[in-house]
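Ligand: flavin-adenine dinucleotide. Inputs:
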Amino acid sequence: MSVAVSANDIARASRWPSVIIVGAGFGGIAAAIELRRAGIDDIRILERAADLGGTWYFNSYPGCACDVPSHLYSFSFAQRRDWSRLCSPQAEIHGYLHDVARAHSVEALVQPNSDVTACEWDEPGCTWTVSTAQGETYEADALVLATGQLHQPSYPRIEGAEEFAGHSFHSARWDHDYDLAGKRVAVVGTGASAIQFIPEIAPLLERLWVFQRTGNWMLPRENRRYPPLVKAAIERVPGLQAFRRRFMFEYCESITLAIRHPRTFGRLAHARSRAFMRSQLKDPELRRKAWPDYTFGCKRVLFSSQYLPTLQRANVELVTDSIARLEESAIVTSAGARLEVDCIVWATGFRSTEFMFPMQITTSTGLDLRGAWVGGAHAHFGITVPGFPNMFVMYGPNTNTSGGSIIAYHEAQASYLRQALEQVRDRGAGAIDVRREVEAAGDRAVQARFAGTAWTRCDSWYRDERGRVIANWPGYMREYFEQTRTLRTSDYRFLGRPHAPSGADSDVAREADGGVAREADVGVAREADGGVAREADGGVARGGARASPQGALADA
Ligand SMILES: Cc1cc2nc3c(=O)[nH]c(=O)nc-3n(C[C@H](O)[C@H](O)[C@H](O)COP(=O)(O)OP(=O)(O)OC[C@H]3O[C@@H](n4cnc5c(N)ncnc54)[C@H](O)[C@@H]3O)c2cc1C
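Predicted complex:
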Protein backbone atom coordinates (compact mmCIF):
# COMPACT_ATOMS: atom_id res chain seq x y z
CA MET A 1 0.00 0.00 0.00
CA SER A 2 1.40 3.39 -0.90
CA VAL A 3 1.05 6.38 1.32
CA ALA A 4 0.59 9.88 -0.06
CA VAL A 5 3.38 12.15 1.06
CA SER A 6 2.46 15.82 1.33
CA ALA A 7 4.71 18.87 1.31
CA ASN A 8 3.84 19.18 4.95
CA ASP A 9 5.17 15.70 5.63
CA ILE A 10 8.40 16.49 3.80
CA ALA A 11 8.87 19.68 5.79
CA ARG A 12 8.12 17.84 9.00
CA ALA A 13 10.52 15.00 8.24
CA SER A 14 13.35 17.35 7.35
CA ARG A 15 13.19 19.08 10.70
CA TRP A 16 12.39 15.95 12.73
CA PRO A 17 11.92 15.88 15.62
CA SER A 18 9.78 18.76 16.71
CA VAL A 19 9.59 18.86 20.48
CA ILE A 20 7.16 20.41 22.93
CA ILE A 21 8.47 20.92 26.43
CA VAL A 22 5.92 21.61 29.14
CA GLY A 23 7.39 23.67 31.97
CA ALA A 24 10.14 26.27 31.95
CA GLY A 25 11.88 25.58 35.23
CA PHE A 26 15.40 24.24 35.44
CA GLY A 27 14.17 20.95 33.95
CA GLY A 28 12.55 22.39 30.85
CA ILE A 29 15.45 24.74 30.23
CA ALA A 30 17.97 21.90 30.69
CA ALA A 31 16.12 19.78 28.14
CA ALA A 32 15.90 22.62 25.62
CA ILE A 33 19.60 23.44 25.91
CA GLU A 34 20.61 19.81 25.46
CA LEU A 35 18.39 19.36 22.39
CA ARG A 36 19.56 22.59 20.77
CA ARG A 37 23.16 21.57 21.25
CA ALA A 38 22.36 18.38 19.35
CA GLY A 39 20.93 20.40 16.48
CA ILE A 40 17.30 19.83 17.41
CA ASP A 41 15.89 23.31 16.95
CA ASP A 42 12.17 22.87 16.54
CA ILE A 43 11.34 23.36 20.20
CA ARG A 44 8.48 25.09 21.93
CA ILE A 45 8.43 25.47 25.72
CA LEU A 46 4.91 25.92 27.06
CA GLU A 47 4.85 27.50 30.49
CA ARG A 48 1.78 28.21 32.59
CA ALA A 49 3.40 31.11 34.45
CA ALA A 50 4.17 34.57 33.14
CA ASP A 51 7.90 33.87 33.17
CA LEU A 52 10.37 31.02 33.16
CA GLY A 53 11.88 29.84 36.45
CA GLY A 54 9.44 27.30 37.89
CA THR A 55 10.26 26.90 41.57
CA TRP A 56 12.38 30.05 41.45
CA TYR A 57 9.63 32.11 39.86
CA PHE A 58 6.87 31.02 42.23
CA ASN A 59 8.75 30.95 45.53
CA SER A 60 9.72 34.47 46.50
CA TYR A 61 9.10 34.39 50.23
CA PRO A 62 11.50 36.33 52.46
CA GLY A 63 14.72 34.40 52.88
CA CYS A 64 13.99 32.05 49.97
CA ALA A 65 17.21 30.36 48.85
CA CYS A 66 18.43 27.01 47.68
CA ASP A 67 19.60 24.68 50.42
CA VAL A 68 22.08 22.83 48.24
CA PRO A 69 25.04 25.19 47.81
CA SER A 70 24.97 27.14 44.56
CA HIS A 71 28.19 25.80 43.11
CA LEU A 72 26.44 22.41 43.03
CA TYR A 73 22.91 23.72 42.60
CA SER A 74 23.70 25.11 39.13
CA PHE A 75 24.39 23.68 35.69
CA SER A 76 27.76 21.93 35.33
CA PHE A 77 28.22 23.71 31.98
CA ALA A 78 27.35 27.16 33.33
CA GLN A 79 29.32 27.57 36.52
CA ARG A 80 29.22 30.96 38.17
CA ARG A 81 31.89 32.20 40.49
CA ASP A 82 30.16 35.31 41.74
CA TRP A 83 27.35 33.87 43.85
CA SER A 84 26.75 36.17 46.80
CA ARG A 85 26.50 33.37 49.38
CA LEU A 86 26.89 29.64 49.78
CA CYS A 87 23.17 29.16 49.14
CA SER A 88 21.99 31.90 46.82
CA PRO A 89 18.78 33.83 47.32
CA GLN A 90 15.84 33.19 44.99
CA ALA A 91 16.31 36.32 42.87
CA GLU A 92 19.89 35.35 42.09
CA ILE A 93 18.88 31.82 41.09
CA HIS A 94 16.02 33.11 38.96
CA GLY A 95 18.36 35.61 37.30
CA TYR A 96 20.92 32.85 36.73
CA LEU A 97 18.36 30.66 34.95
CA HIS A 98 17.40 33.58 32.72
CA ASP A 99 21.08 34.25 31.94
CA VAL A 100 21.78 30.62 31.07
CA ALA A 101 18.63 30.31 28.95
CA ARG A 102 19.57 33.48 27.07
CA ALA A 103 23.19 32.44 26.58
CA HIS A 104 22.05 29.13 25.07
CA SER A 105 19.37 30.73 22.91
CA VAL A 106 16.44 28.98 24.53
CA GLU A 107 14.93 31.90 26.45
CA ALA A 108 12.94 32.97 23.40
CA LEU A 109 11.50 29.46 23.01
CA VAL A 110 9.50 29.90 26.20
CA GLN A 111 5.85 30.63 25.56
CA PRO A 112 4.48 31.97 28.86
CA ASN A 113 0.86 31.93 30.00
CA SER A 114 0.32 28.60 28.29
CA ASP A 115 -1.34 26.20 30.66
CA VAL A 116 -1.26 22.72 29.17
CA THR A 117 -4.42 20.77 29.90
CA ALA A 118 -4.06 17.72 27.67
CA CYS A 119 -1.49 15.79 25.64
CA GLU A 120 -2.62 13.04 23.29
CA TRP A 121 -0.44 10.60 21.44
CA ASP A 122 -1.63 9.57 18.01
CA GLU A 123 0.11 6.26 17.36
CA PRO A 124 -0.51 5.91 13.63
CA GLY A 125 0.72 9.44 13.03
CA CYS A 126 3.46 9.29 15.69
CA THR A 127 2.39 12.72 16.88
CA TRP A 128 1.67 14.35 20.20
CA THR A 129 -1.15 16.89 20.22
CA VAL A 130 -0.91 19.31 23.09
CA SER A 131 -3.82 21.54 24.15
CA THR A 132 -3.77 24.52 26.45
CA ALA A 133 -6.37 26.19 28.64
CA GLN A 134 -5.91 29.25 26.42
CA GLY A 135 -7.49 27.31 23.54
CA GLU A 136 -4.31 26.66 21.53
CA THR A 137 -3.37 23.29 20.07
CA TYR A 138 0.12 22.26 19.02
CA GLU A 139 1.56 19.18 17.38
CA ALA A 140 4.99 17.72 17.90
CA ASP A 141 6.92 14.51 17.41
CA ALA A 142 8.08 14.37 21.00
CA LEU A 143 6.84 15.58 24.35
CA VAL A 144 8.93 16.49 27.36
CA LEU A 145 7.01 16.90 30.61
CA ALA A 146 9.15 19.14 32.78
CA THR A 147 6.51 20.10 35.30
CA GLY A 148 8.56 19.12 38.33
CA GLN A 149 7.41 17.62 41.62
CA LEU A 150 6.95 20.80 43.65
CA HIS A 151 4.80 23.16 41.62
CA GLN A 152 1.31 22.67 43.03
CA PRO A 153 0.85 24.20 46.49
CA SER A 154 -0.87 21.93 48.95
CA TYR A 155 -3.45 23.25 51.42
CA PRO A 156 -4.73 21.19 54.33
CA ARG A 157 -8.44 20.58 54.65
CA ILE A 158 -9.50 22.26 57.89
CA GLU A 159 -12.97 22.62 59.30
CA GLY A 160 -14.29 26.16 59.05
CA ALA A 161 -11.67 27.26 56.50
CA GLU A 162 -14.29 29.17 54.54
CA GLU A 163 -15.28 31.11 57.64
CA PHE A 164 -11.84 32.59 58.20
CA ALA A 165 -12.05 36.26 57.21
CA GLY A 166 -8.44 37.21 57.87
CA HIS A 167 -5.70 37.21 55.26
CA SER A 168 -3.99 34.02 54.12
CA PHE A 169 -1.62 32.83 51.44
CA HIS A 170 0.70 29.93 50.64
CA SER A 171 4.45 30.34 51.04
CA ALA A 172 4.87 29.48 47.34
CA ARG A 173 2.50 32.35 46.41
CA TRP A 174 3.83 34.97 48.83
CA ASP A 175 1.65 38.06 48.99
CA HIS A 176 4.19 40.86 48.88
CA ASP A 177 1.41 43.46 48.94
CA TYR A 178 0.33 42.37 52.40
CA ASP A 179 2.23 44.22 55.12
CA LEU A 180 3.02 41.78 57.91
CA ALA A 181 4.44 44.44 60.23
CA GLY A 182 2.73 44.40 63.63
CA LYS A 183 0.40 41.54 62.69
CA ARG A 184 -0.58 38.38 64.55
CA VAL A 185 0.41 35.59 62.24
CA ALA A 186 0.15 31.81 62.22
CA VAL A 187 2.55 29.83 60.07
CA VAL A 188 1.28 26.34 59.43
CA GLY A 189 4.13 23.96 58.65
CA THR A 190 7.78 23.76 59.58
CA GLY A 191 9.40 22.34 56.45
CA ALA A 192 12.20 23.61 54.23
CA SER A 193 10.39 26.83 53.21
CA ALA A 194 9.10 27.70 56.70
CA ILE A 195 12.50 27.43 58.33
CA GLN A 196 13.82 29.94 55.79
CA PHE A 197 11.14 32.62 56.13
CA ILE A 198 10.23 32.34 59.83
CA PRO A 199 13.51 33.96 61.00
CA GLU A 200 12.94 36.73 58.41
CA ILE A 201 9.40 37.65 59.39
CA ALA A 202 9.41 36.98 63.15
CA PRO A 203 11.05 40.30 64.11
CA LEU A 204 8.36 42.22 62.20
CA LEU A 205 5.37 40.63 63.86
CA GLU A 206 3.43 41.33 67.00
CA ARG A 207 2.93 37.60 67.52
CA LEU A 208 3.83 34.46 65.63
CA TRP A 209 2.46 30.98 66.19
CA VAL A 210 4.33 28.24 64.39
CA PHE A 211 2.21 25.13 63.90
CA GLN A 212 4.37 22.05 63.73
CA ARG A 213 3.25 18.52 62.88
CA THR A 214 6.72 16.99 63.22
CA GLY A 215 10.08 18.48 64.14
CA ASN A 216 13.08 18.51 61.83
CA TRP A 217 16.55 17.11 62.10
CA MET A 218 18.69 20.18 61.59
CA LEU A 219 22.28 20.99 60.79
CA PRO A 220 24.03 24.36 61.05
CA ARG A 221 24.14 26.93 58.27
CA GLU A 222 24.74 30.64 58.64
CA ASN A 223 24.55 31.44 54.92
CA ARG A 224 25.92 34.94 55.37
CA ARG A 225 27.14 36.99 52.41
CA TYR A 226 30.62 35.89 51.39
CA PRO A 227 33.25 38.23 52.78
CA PRO A 228 34.98 40.09 49.89
CA LEU A 229 38.18 38.07 50.35
CA VAL A 230 36.39 34.73 50.00
CA LYS A 231 34.43 36.02 47.03
CA ALA A 232 37.60 37.24 45.36
CA ALA A 233 39.32 33.90 45.98
CA ILE A 234 36.42 31.94 44.44
CA GLU A 235 36.41 34.24 41.44
CA ARG A 236 40.17 34.29 40.87
CA VAL A 237 41.85 31.19 42.21
CA PRO A 238 41.95 28.66 39.39
CA GLY A 239 40.29 25.38 40.26
CA LEU A 240 38.79 26.60 43.53
CA GLN A 241 35.27 26.67 42.21
CA ALA A 242 35.64 23.19 40.71
CA PHE A 243 37.08 21.91 43.98
CA ARG A 244 34.17 23.38 45.94
CA ARG A 245 31.69 21.76 43.57
CA ARG A 246 33.41 18.39 43.90
CA PHE A 247 33.58 18.74 47.68
CA MET A 248 29.91 19.61 47.90
CA PHE A 249 29.02 16.71 45.62
CA GLU A 250 30.79 14.29 47.96
CA TYR A 251 29.28 15.96 51.03
CA CYS A 252 25.80 15.48 49.55
CA GLU A 253 26.59 11.86 48.75
CA SER A 254 27.56 11.40 52.40
CA ILE A 255 24.07 12.53 53.43
CA THR A 256 22.66 9.83 51.16
CA LEU A 257 25.06 7.37 52.77
CA ALA A 258 23.64 8.27 56.20
CA ILE A 259 20.08 7.88 54.95
CA ARG A 260 20.81 4.58 53.27
CA HIS A 261 22.49 3.18 56.39
CA PRO A 262 20.54 4.48 59.39
CA ARG A 263 22.11 2.00 61.81
CA THR A 264 25.71 2.92 61.03
CA PHE A 265 26.55 6.10 59.13
CA GLY A 266 23.11 7.44 59.98
CA ARG A 267 23.95 7.32 63.67
CA LEU A 268 26.97 9.54 63.12
CA ALA A 269 24.97 12.14 61.22
CA HIS A 270 22.22 11.88 63.80
CA ALA A 271 24.73 12.54 66.60
CA ARG A 272 26.01 15.62 64.76
CA SER A 273 22.48 16.95 64.32
CA ARG A 274 21.52 16.16 67.91
CA ALA A 275 24.54 18.00 69.31
CA PHE A 276 23.79 21.04 67.17
CA MET A 277 20.12 21.08 68.11
CA ARG A 278 20.83 20.67 71.80
CA SER A 279 23.23 23.60 71.65
CA GLN A 280 20.54 25.71 70.01
CA LEU A 281 17.56 24.66 72.09
CA LYS A 282 18.38 25.59 75.67
CA ASP A 283 14.83 25.52 76.99
CA PRO A 284 13.98 21.86 77.77
CA GLU A 285 10.25 22.31 77.09
CA LEU A 286 10.85 23.88 73.68
CA ARG A 287 13.47 21.24 72.95
CA ARG A 288 10.95 18.52 73.70
CA LYS A 289 8.38 20.11 71.42
CA ALA A 290 10.75 20.81 68.53
CA TRP A 291 12.47 17.44 68.68
CA PRO A 292 11.81 15.09 65.75
CA ASP A 293 10.35 11.68 66.56
CA TYR A 294 11.60 9.79 63.51
CA THR A 295 14.85 8.42 62.12
CA PHE A 296 17.43 10.93 60.91
CA GLY A 297 17.05 11.41 57.15
CA CYS A 298 13.54 10.00 56.81
CA LYS A 299 12.33 13.52 55.99
CA ARG A 300 14.51 16.21 54.48
CA VAL A 301 17.34 17.23 56.81
CA LEU A 302 17.24 21.01 57.13
CA PHE A 303 20.10 23.47 57.36
CA SER A 304 19.67 26.63 59.39
CA SER A 305 21.41 28.27 62.30
CA GLN A 306 18.62 30.85 62.61
CA TYR A 307 15.41 28.86 62.80
CA LEU A 308 15.61 27.23 66.26
CA PRO A 309 16.80 30.46 67.96
CA THR A 310 13.83 32.25 66.36
CA LEU A 311 11.46 29.86 68.10
CA GLN A 312 12.85 31.19 71.38
CA ARG A 313 11.89 34.81 70.70
CA ALA A 314 9.41 36.32 73.15
CA ASN A 315 6.84 36.94 70.39
CA VAL A 316 7.04 33.40 68.95
CA GLU A 317 5.34 30.23 70.11
CA LEU A 318 5.76 26.73 68.75
CA VAL A 319 2.40 24.97 68.72
CA THR A 320 2.37 21.20 68.44
CA ASP A 321 -1.36 20.76 68.93
CA SER A 322 -3.15 20.30 65.65
CA ILE A 323 -5.63 22.82 64.25
CA ALA A 324 -9.16 21.73 65.14
CA ARG A 325 -10.96 24.43 63.15
CA LEU A 326 -10.82 27.96 61.85
CA GLU A 327 -13.22 30.68 62.94
CA GLU A 328 -13.76 34.14 61.48
CA SER A 329 -10.68 35.63 63.12
CA ALA A 330 -9.09 32.74 64.98
CA ILE A 331 -7.49 29.33 64.93
CA VAL A 332 -8.85 26.86 67.46
CA THR A 333 -6.41 24.13 68.43
CA SER A 334 -7.16 20.54 69.37
CA ALA A 335 -6.24 21.50 72.96
CA GLY A 336 -9.03 24.10 72.91
CA ALA A 337 -6.84 27.22 72.67
CA ARG A 338 -8.36 30.03 70.60
CA LEU A 339 -5.68 32.13 68.88
CA GLU A 340 -6.76 35.43 67.31
CA VAL A 341 -4.79 35.87 64.09
CA ASP A 342 -4.70 38.46 61.32
CA CYS A 343 -3.00 36.23 58.79
CA ILE A 344 -2.28 32.55 58.13
CA VAL A 345 0.71 31.57 56.02
CA TRP A 346 0.35 28.06 54.67
CA ALA A 347 3.79 26.51 54.58
CA THR A 348 2.23 23.17 53.88
CA GLY A 349 4.31 22.08 50.92
CA PHE A 350 3.24 20.75 47.58
CA ARG A 351 1.07 18.07 46.03
CA SER A 352 4.26 16.26 45.10
CA THR A 353 2.73 12.90 44.23
CA GLU A 354 0.55 14.57 41.59
CA PHE A 355 3.50 15.23 39.26
CA MET A 356 2.03 16.71 36.02
CA PHE A 357 -1.63 16.00 36.83
CA PRO A 358 -4.41 17.18 36.48
CA MET A 359 -3.04 17.40 32.92
CA GLN A 360 -4.62 14.61 30.84
CA ILE A 361 -2.14 12.38 29.08
CA THR A 362 -3.68 9.84 26.79
CA THR A 363 -2.87 7.74 23.73
CA SER A 364 -4.85 6.64 20.73
CA THR A 365 -4.14 3.11 21.96
CA GLY A 366 -6.46 3.76 24.89
CA LEU A 367 -3.95 4.50 27.62
CA ASP A 368 -4.27 7.21 30.20
CA LEU A 369 -1.23 8.08 32.33
CA ARG A 370 -3.36 8.44 35.44
CA GLY A 371 -4.58 4.90 34.89
CA ALA A 372 -1.05 3.65 34.21
CA TRP A 373 0.06 5.16 37.51
CA VAL A 374 -2.93 4.16 39.57
CA GLY A 375 -0.75 1.92 41.76
CA GLY A 376 1.87 4.67 42.18
CA ALA A 377 3.89 6.68 39.68
CA HIS A 378 6.79 4.86 38.03
CA ALA A 379 8.97 5.37 34.99
CA HIS A 380 12.22 4.00 33.61
CA PHE A 381 14.85 6.07 35.38
CA GLY A 382 11.93 8.39 36.09
CA ILE A 383 11.97 9.37 32.42
CA THR A 384 10.07 7.00 30.10
CA VAL A 385 6.74 5.24 30.59
CA PRO A 386 5.72 2.15 28.62
CA GLY A 387 2.92 2.78 26.14
CA PHE A 388 3.67 6.52 25.94
CA PRO A 389 6.14 6.72 23.05
CA ASN A 390 8.31 9.77 22.55
CA MET A 391 7.26 11.07 25.95
CA PHE A 392 9.94 11.99 28.46
CA VAL A 393 9.52 13.13 32.03
CA MET A 394 12.05 15.41 33.72
CA TYR A 395 12.30 15.17 37.52
CA GLY A 396 9.82 12.32 37.28
CA PRO A 397 9.06 9.51 39.71
CA ASN A 398 11.99 8.40 41.89
CA THR A 399 14.36 11.13 40.77
CA ASN A 400 14.15 13.45 43.75
CA THR A 401 17.14 13.52 46.04
CA SER A 402 17.45 14.10 49.77
CA GLY A 403 21.12 14.87 49.54
CA GLY A 404 21.99 16.29 46.16
CA SER A 405 21.18 18.70 43.39
CA ILE A 406 18.08 18.19 41.28
CA ILE A 407 19.81 20.17 38.54
CA ALA A 408 22.44 17.45 38.22
CA TYR A 409 19.62 14.93 37.72
CA HIS A 410 18.03 17.25 35.15
CA GLU A 411 21.25 17.24 33.16
CA ALA A 412 21.37 13.44 33.18
CA GLN A 413 17.72 13.26 32.09
CA ALA A 414 18.21 15.81 29.31
CA SER A 415 21.17 13.85 27.95
CA TYR A 416 19.18 10.61 28.13
CA LEU A 417 16.17 11.93 26.25
CA ARG A 418 18.41 13.56 23.66
CA GLN A 419 20.02 10.17 23.04
CA ALA A 420 16.58 8.59 22.72
CA LEU A 421 15.52 11.06 20.05
CA GLU A 422 18.83 10.71 18.22
CA GLN A 423 18.29 6.94 18.16
CA VAL A 424 14.84 7.38 16.67
CA ARG A 425 16.16 9.81 14.09
CA ASP A 426 19.21 7.75 13.17
CA ARG A 427 17.13 4.62 12.72
CA GLY A 428 14.57 6.44 10.63
CA ALA A 429 11.97 5.37 13.15
CA GLY A 430 8.97 7.35 14.30
CA ALA A 431 9.04 6.80 18.02
CA ILE A 432 10.71 5.11 20.94
CA ASP A 433 8.85 3.28 23.68
CA VAL A 434 10.39 1.68 26.75
CA ARG A 435 9.75 -2.03 26.98
CA ARG A 436 7.15 -2.76 29.60
CA GLU A 437 9.03 -5.61 31.27
CA VAL A 438 12.25 -3.59 31.40
CA GLU A 439 10.52 -0.67 33.10
CA ALA A 440 8.73 -3.02 35.51
CA ALA A 441 11.97 -4.80 36.46
CA GLY A 442 13.70 -1.47 37.00
CA ASP A 443 10.84 -0.25 39.15
CA ARG A 444 10.94 -3.39 41.30
CA ALA A 445 14.69 -2.93 41.76
CA VAL A 446 14.26 0.74 42.72
CA GLN A 447 11.57 -0.08 45.26
CA ALA A 448 13.52 -3.01 46.69
CA ARG A 449 16.46 -0.74 47.24
CA PHE A 450 14.55 1.38 49.75
CA ALA A 451 14.44 -1.56 52.16
CA GLY A 452 16.35 -0.80 55.34
CA THR A 453 16.83 2.88 54.52
CA ALA A 454 15.67 5.80 56.64
CA TRP A 455 13.21 6.80 53.89
CA THR A 456 10.87 3.96 54.85
CA ARG A 457 10.81 4.77 58.55
CA CYS A 458 8.22 7.52 58.63
CA ASP A 459 5.57 9.24 56.52
CA SER A 460 6.90 11.95 54.27
CA TRP A 461 6.12 13.72 51.03
CA TYR A 462 8.40 11.22 49.32
CA ARG A 463 5.76 8.51 49.73
CA ASP A 464 2.28 8.09 48.33
CA GLU A 465 -0.78 7.08 50.31
CA ARG A 466 0.17 3.41 49.95
CA GLY A 467 3.58 4.10 51.48
CA ARG A 468 5.45 3.56 48.22
CA VAL A 469 8.38 5.96 47.88
CA ILE A 470 7.64 7.59 44.54
CA ALA A 471 9.58 10.84 44.80
CA ASN A 472 13.11 9.79 45.63
CA TRP A 473 15.92 7.99 43.90
CA PRO A 474 17.05 5.31 46.35
CA GLY A 475 20.78 5.73 45.78
CA TYR A 476 23.58 8.10 45.11
CA MET A 477 23.76 10.80 42.48
CA ARG A 478 26.70 9.09 40.82
CA GLU A 479 24.71 5.88 40.38
CA TYR A 480 21.94 7.71 38.61
CA PHE A 481 24.45 9.37 36.30
CA GLU A 482 26.20 6.10 35.54
CA GLN A 483 22.97 4.30 34.78
CA THR A 484 21.54 7.00 32.55
CA ARG A 485 24.77 8.02 30.82
CA THR A 486 24.22 5.75 27.82
CA LEU A 487 20.74 4.84 26.69
CA ARG A 488 20.47 1.07 26.23
CA THR A 489 18.61 0.65 23.00
CA SER A 490 17.64 -2.90 23.94
CA ASP A 491 15.52 -1.41 26.75
CA TYR A 492 13.33 0.09 24.03
CA ARG A 493 11.23 -0.75 21.05
CA PHE A 494 11.08 1.56 18.10
CA LEU A 495 7.93 2.40 16.18
CA GLY A 496 7.88 3.01 12.46
CA ARG A 497 7.61 6.46 11.04
CA PRO A 498 4.31 6.91 9.22
CA HIS A 499 5.00 9.43 6.48
CA ALA A 500 8.68 9.53 5.70
CA PRO A 501 9.27 11.17 2.34
CA SER A 502 12.18 10.25 0.10
CA GLY A 503 15.16 12.51 0.12
CA ALA A 504 14.62 13.92 3.58
CA ASP A 505 17.71 12.12 4.82
CA SER A 506 19.28 8.79 4.13
CA ASP A 507 17.51 6.85 6.86
CA VAL A 508 14.16 8.39 6.19
CA ALA A 509 14.58 7.73 2.51
CA ARG A 510 14.87 4.00 3.08
CA GLU A 511 11.32 3.94 4.32
CA ALA A 512 9.65 6.22 1.85
CA ASP A 513 8.02 3.55 -0.27
CA GLY A 514 6.25 1.80 2.54
CA GLY A 515 5.47 4.84 4.58
CA VAL A 516 6.65 3.04 7.71
CA ALA A 517 10.02 1.97 8.91
CA ARG A 518 11.07 -1.56 8.14
CA GLU A 519 10.84 -3.93 11.04
CA ALA A 520 14.43 -5.01 10.62
CA ASP A 521 15.60 -1.44 10.93
CA VAL A 522 13.57 -0.33 13.84
CA GLY A 523 12.81 -3.47 15.72
CA VAL A 524 9.05 -3.36 15.61
CA ALA A 525 6.36 -5.25 13.76
CA ARG A 526 4.30 -3.04 11.54
CA GLU A 527 0.87 -3.02 10.09
CA ALA A 528 0.28 -2.54 6.41
CA ASP A 529 -2.04 0.40 6.83
CA GLY A 530 0.64 2.63 8.17
CA GLY A 531 -0.04 1.94 11.79
CA VAL A 532 2.41 0.03 13.93
CA ALA A 533 2.08 -2.99 16.12
CA ARG A 534 1.64 -2.09 19.72
CA GLU A 535 1.84 -3.68 23.08
CA ALA A 536 -0.23 -1.33 25.14
CA ASP A 537 -3.31 -3.47 25.40
CA GLY A 538 -1.60 -6.69 26.22
CA GLY A 539 0.79 -4.94 28.50
CA VAL A 540 3.64 -7.32 27.62
CA ALA A 541 6.39 -6.32 25.27
CA ARG A 542 7.50 -8.72 22.61
CA GLY A 543 11.11 -9.66 22.40
CA GLY A 544 13.38 -10.98 25.08
CA ALA A 545 12.95 -9.56 28.54
CA ARG A 546 16.12 -8.16 30.04
CA ALA A 547 16.78 -6.62 33.38
CA SER A 548 17.26 -2.88 33.40
CA PRO A 549 20.55 -1.48 34.64
CA GLN A 550 18.74 -0.72 37.85
CA GLY A 551 18.66 -4.41 38.51
CA ALA A 552 22.40 -4.25 38.94
CA LEU A 553 22.39 -1.50 41.53
CA ALA A 554 25.04 -2.04 44.13
CA ASP A 555 24.98 -0.67 47.59
CA ALA A 556 27.83 1.50 48.79
C1 LIG B 1 11.66 26.65 48.06
C2 LIG B 1 12.33 25.52 47.36
C3 LIG B 1 13.70 25.35 47.47
C4 LIG B 1 14.33 24.32 46.80
N1 LIG B 1 15.68 24.16 46.94
C5 LIG B 1 16.30 23.16 46.30
C6 LIG B 1 17.70 22.97 46.45
O1 LIG B 1 18.38 23.67 47.16
N2 LIG B 1 18.27 21.95 45.78
C7 LIG B 1 17.55 21.11 44.98
O2 LIG B 1 18.13 20.22 44.39
N3 LIG B 1 16.22 21.29 44.81
C8 LIG B 1 15.59 22.27 45.46
N4 LIG B 1 14.24 22.43 45.31
C9 LIG B 1 13.49 21.55 44.40
C10 LIG B 1 13.22 22.28 43.06
O3 LIG B 1 11.88 22.13 42.78
C11 LIG B 1 14.11 21.70 41.97
O4 LIG B 1 15.46 21.88 42.31
C12 LIG B 1 13.95 22.35 40.60
O5 LIG B 1 13.84 23.74 40.67
C13 LIG B 1 12.79 21.76 39.87
O6 LIG B 1 12.80 22.25 38.56
P1 LIG B 1 11.74 21.70 37.51
O7 LIG B 1 11.94 22.47 36.27
O8 LIG B 1 11.85 20.23 37.42
O9 LIG B 1 10.34 21.99 38.17
P2 LIG B 1 9.72 23.39 38.54
O10 LIG B 1 10.76 24.35 38.91
O11 LIG B 1 8.63 23.12 39.51
O12 LIG B 1 9.12 23.89 37.17
C14 LIG B 1 8.00 23.28 36.60
C15 LIG B 1 7.33 24.28 35.71
O13 LIG B 1 6.28 23.62 35.01
C16 LIG B 1 5.20 24.52 34.91
N5 LIG B 1 3.98 23.77 34.72
C17 LIG B 1 3.44 22.84 35.54
N6 LIG B 1 2.30 22.37 35.01
C18 LIG B 1 2.13 23.00 33.84
C19 LIG B 1 1.13 22.94 32.83
N7 LIG B 1 0.07 22.13 32.95
N8 LIG B 1 1.27 23.73 31.74
C20 LIG B 1 2.34 24.56 31.62
N9 LIG B 1 3.29 24.67 32.55
C21 LIG B 1 3.19 23.89 33.64
C22 LIG B 1 5.21 25.25 36.24
O14 LIG B 1 4.52 26.48 36.14
C23 LIG B 1 6.70 25.43 36.47
O15 LIG B 1 7.16 26.64 35.95
C24 LIG B 1 13.58 23.43 45.99
C25 LIG B 1 12.20 23.58 45.91
C26 LIG B 1 11.58 24.60 46.59
C27 LIG B 1 10.08 24.73 46.48
